[in-house]
Target: ATP-dependent helicase/nuclease subunit B
Amino acid sequence: MNALIDKLHNICKEYPLKEKILIVDTHSIGQEIKQAYVNEYGHVIQLKTNTVHNLAVDVMNQKSNHVLPLIEQSIGTQFIYHILKDLNENKELSYFLDLEVTPSFSSSIHQSISQLRLAGYTKDTLKKEAFISSEKADDFQRIMNRYEEALRQYQFMDKAHLFREASNLARPQNNAVFIMQSNLTLTQLSHDFLQQFLSKNVFKLPLPAVYGVSIPEHEEKDLRSIEWSAPTAFSYLYHVEELPKKPNITLFTAKTEEVEIKQVLQQIKQSEAALDDTVIFYPKAEPYITTIYQLSEKYQIPVTFEDGLSILYSQPGRLVAGLIKWLKEDYNVRTFIEMMNEGLIELPEEAPSKSKISKYLRDAKVGWSQSRYSRQLEQLKIQMQQKQIKAENEELQEYYQKQVNDITWLKTWFQRLFRSLPIVGSELNYQDILQGISTMVKKHAKTTSILDELAKAELIEEMEAIFPYANETLRPFEAFQKVRELLFMLRVHKSGPKPGYLHVGSYYNGIYHNRKNVFIVGLDNHAFPGESNEDPLILDKERKQLNGFMPILQENSTNNLFAMLQLLAQTQGNVFFSYCTFSINDNRTVNPAHIFLQGYRMITENPNADFEELAKLESPLTSPATFEAKDYWNQLLEKDANIRLEQELLNSYQNLVFGEEAEEARTEGEFTHFDGKVNIDRDLFDPRQNEKLVLSSGRLERLATCPYSYFLENILKLKPIEETEFDPYSWLDAPTRGSLLHSIFESYYKTLDGEKPTYKKHLETILTIAKKKIDEQKAIQPPPSERVLEREMNDIYQCCRIFLKEEESYSEGYQAKYFEHAFGLNGAEPATITLPAGETIQVRGIVDRVDQSNDGHFHIIDYKTGSTYNYHDKNQFRGGRQLQHFIYALAIEEHLKLEAGTVKESSYYFPSVKGLGERYVRNQDNVLRTNGLDILEKLIDVIKHGHFSMTDNADDCTFCDFKAVCRRELYPQETLKQKQMDSLAEGVQKFKGVRAYE
Ligand code: SF4
Model:
């Protein structure tokens, strides 16, 4: 900036005591120019900087008695949204008639109206013939008319109004000296105002001449014009043939943006350049801002961001994103837990721990919906109170009391929280949502940094500004979209360059930067010079006819190139160009921008160098410098994927040693500790030794299906996280639907009082019972919609019909005797089964029904409401996977004190639409009983030996919850087979014995 500073110095010398006003696009530019001047001359006398906008505001404040507040962009967009909706509903639009009025469309129209007004047009003066169609011109005029009315009604002024009024009031300021930056950004109205305001004493600061590119053309009297100074080396970037002296320029590339930025940091480190003498410019903000922000947070590098940071980097911003998701999913518990675990919600000191809150919400099966939080937590509280009453000792009582207190607290806390949040229905009030989110941010947003504090204040301010104009009913999707557009575009912590800080910003605003080391990153051909797309609302053709300094969008890329050249030509130090050669998102190679090639031509002093030559530049995939452990590992991986870890390293990473050991053991043919071999405590886990261990048939079947899953679930006590989810397409899950049908069948039979079921006579009875039970279930668990309820009700009624029809014919030979008979549960004694070796085990369960045949023997019925897929007449045990029929037969005989052999049949009965009343009967003869007892003994021996091998059939894994833990699929088939044949592992052999029973 030598020429510029010299000129400024001459002006200061000529007018040492006069007030000098430097007019610039932004205050940040003013600061940079002043700093450059101070660096050169040590001090500035009477030099103030100001923007055209602020000068107009000053004039208004000084000369007008009634200054209206300036309208915020968000409020202006909201006005336009209402105007468009209204015009659309009343069919008053013609050109925009079929367009859906969305928040983003309103925002674009607001921008167009603002541009038209700043170009000097009002609804009365709009140059309608400039538009390609008269309908479009009419629509713009109508919208403008309503917008101007809204400004008057709500007592706001927009920028156009400000400049127009200020122009009327402004008088030439003859006692000050005005100095203007070249190429000032002006609209027609701000230009008119400035012309009224400026005195004759006006100077312009020069920019270095540049060659080989298009430059903005303005007449000399146009205040946007440029004064040129002598060229510098970079002025010749597009005229390399005439390059007088090679500037300091370095080029580099990388395969990821992160590696590119790490190279920047490495260059800064190596050159020992001061951070506040360095600036990073980008043509496209993302992903560079994110990458630089993350690295600067990690390594505590002080950085200022010209464009600020997305509100979503802050905790309050992420809380708002989480809240929108929470509302959208009708208060899904999983989303609440995610927000809480991410630390976005400030919980009061007396709150239970986060893990306890998650557990209570899951145990209560809250799932979703405001009302369920209260109701389900209340139910959980009652369950805990009942457990407390039954608790055997004081310690246990205290434990349950603590849980009751926690749950009560949680229920009250949610009730208070929901007071400010809207109930999600088919329509939502926009104001209510904003109010709710704002209250949540005020009361519960966690803040741990300045960024968080700023974001919190900004979010609240933005929402409060819009409240008075947001009383409207919207569809949920539309409402959430509006909140997102209002809040997620906010950027916080914007800052100009500061002493001690590395500065990061867009090259477009960087022409007057004042730093010696300039990094321009992201110079690929997509990002720079950028595309010159037309604005579909006001075409360039229309803009040219309208004139009024409206920007011509097709000139964007030439303007961008000019801005970049100006920036470079002003730079007096080292320049670095870089770009990322690969796009991970699109999985494709990325080509450099043309300016990058020009940089290469400049360095090589070869004006004919081409892209092919440029492609030879090295493009590292990993950071050549080690900033963090990840870089070290990536470098090793890149060099040799199969590198052996050295012992020295392994000493520091004990878990790697364990991992290697496990991996090796899993590849051996032997059954090892890494495949389910455990030193078991028989006193605890063997039910023959531990009488308190009462097993259910389900648990024994699990052991027979896959001993390894039994080990994970019952020895290690692993449990999958069970989420209760809202499903718009289904009401009852399979277990709830099953219990409902069970209780209908039971209630129906109890009404018979010994009478035989008759389809015609009893259909009404069973359907009435079903209706009553469904209504009860509806009260506990509301269905997602009437349509879903109707579908599932019809299915239940159909099951009842199938059941009754089937019972009518079946009951000719049988009489139902016992219903829901429990043993080892609900206070009933467990049943005892004696194994072949004479030892006993205790079992528990609930038998759906016990019938007695006409000839006096007993028949056990187990209702199944799912598919018959795994049931066949000839497979009685399915390799141990179906044991219940046999266990229940023994248990009932023992429990009802019946003679051995009295239960002759045990059947799986499918009174459902899928099962069509099918019965799979297992005759409990001597052979079946002998085989069943042998299976049970072998299974218990599996526990005794602690040999919990994995299933020999991958089909068993299909619906297993532990797939991710056991990773059976990673074993080579052959190795798995060898392990399952290990003759030295007795438990494994026993398991093989179980499988032999079909
Ligand atoms: S995934 Fe398969 S092998 Fe693993 S625990 Fe489950 S059933 Fe057993």
